[in-house]
Design goal:
The protein is of the alpha+beta class. It has helices at 3-13, 44-60, 71-88, 91-99, 104-112, 116-130, and strands spanning 17-21, 29-32, 35-39, 133-136, 140-144, 147-151. A three-stranded mixed beta sheet has the order 1-3-2, covered by helices on one side. Strands 4-5-6 form a three-stranded antiparallel beta sheet. The longest helix has 18 residues, at 71-88. It is globular.
């Protein structure tokens, strides 16, 4: 099942209505009062990233945050995006891509069913959070630039 379909199911279970509508300009998604509007004319991968971010707002945001000049609004936007990145590009999936011998950002994005842009923004957020790399599951070092996974071994 594609991430977009999984997120649609989750939204339904949470009582969040999701509608696809034409949206003007650069706007691709909106969340307010348990309703999400997604721009209609996008790929499923694009819709998945947008829906993840809007669900992130459902879980992490309060009030009107449209004024991004306000630091509190920017922080809530960042939290919602971080929620989306962790949902669609979890560290465990980067490790799975490594085990599947998937190479390069394009192939990793394909493997995860996200856009390359969404993958890039996810990696940038992880790098901002963790630095150059993170140890995952005590067995893997995930490096963010260049994106790579190194399996660690214990030697007696």
């Amino acid at each position: 099942m594609l991430p977009y379909e999984r997120l649609l199911r989750e939204a339904d279970q949470q009582g969040v209505d999701v509608y696809e509508r034409p949206l003007a300009g650069r706007l691709k998604g909106l969340y307010a009062d348990n309703t999400i509007i997604i721009k209609r004319n996008m790929t499923y991968r694009e819709k998945g990233g947008i829906l993840a971010e809007e669900l992130g707002h459902h879980y992490t945001s309060t009030g009107n945050i449209l004024d991004q000049k306000d630091i509190r609004s920017r922080k809530q936007e960042k939290r919602a995006k971080s929620w989306a990145y962790q949902r669609l590009v979890p560290l465990s999936q980067i490790v799975q891509a490594y085990h599947a011998r998937v190479k390069g950002r394009h192939e990793i994005a394909e493997f995860l069913c996200v856009t390359e842009d969404f993958l890039q923004r996810s990696i940038e957020r992880y790098q901002e959070k963790y630095g150059l790399y993170v140890i995952h599951d005590e067995r893997y070092a995930i490096y963010f630039d260049p994106l790579s996974v190194v399996e660690m071994f214990d030697y007696p």
